Backbone:
């Protein structure tokens, strides 16, 4: 299984958001490593729940920040976040059905990271902060 690394090109330029993004990657890596090493179900469940909970908290915090800075991308962020929450729920459903946990859940999470979460950091979050830096400061 792949270990996901934080890369400079994922940085938004916002220290809080970037720190949360790094933490999300770390939680995902913990789960994937636990699955790869055949850890107990309770350990796997705990690590997945930590990832899921932190993902929800991060999305909430990010949407609040987008609202605070008046980002024109807020509605798109909300839509993207809702879709990704549902995708994580679908991965959890694979687990709850006990369908192929050993292979399917870790593979599904890896795919979600590669095709959804990391591109979201790069394409959506980073652009929003680039817009913010390019915009003139608000009038007082």
Residues:
């Amino acid at each position: 299984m792949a270990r996901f690394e934080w890369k400079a090109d994922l940085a938004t330029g916002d220290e809080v958001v970037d720190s949360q993004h790094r933490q999300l990657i770390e939680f995902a890596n913990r789960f994937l490593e636990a699955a790869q090493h055949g850890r107990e179900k309770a350990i796997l469940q705990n690590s997945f729940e930590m990832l899921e909970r932190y993902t929800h908290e991060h999305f909430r915090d990010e949407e609040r920040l987008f609202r605070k800075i008046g980002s024109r991308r807020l509605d798109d962020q909300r839509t993207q976040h809702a879709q990704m929450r549902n995708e994580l729920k679908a991965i959890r459903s694979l687990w709850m059905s006990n369908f192929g946990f050993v292979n399917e859940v870790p593979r599904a999470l890896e795919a979600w990271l590669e095709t959804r979460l990391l591109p979201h950091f790069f394409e959506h979050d980073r652009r929003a902060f680039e817009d913010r830096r390019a915009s003139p400061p608000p009038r007082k």
Summary: The chain has a mean pLDDT of 87. The chain has four helices and no strands. The chain has one domain: 23-127.
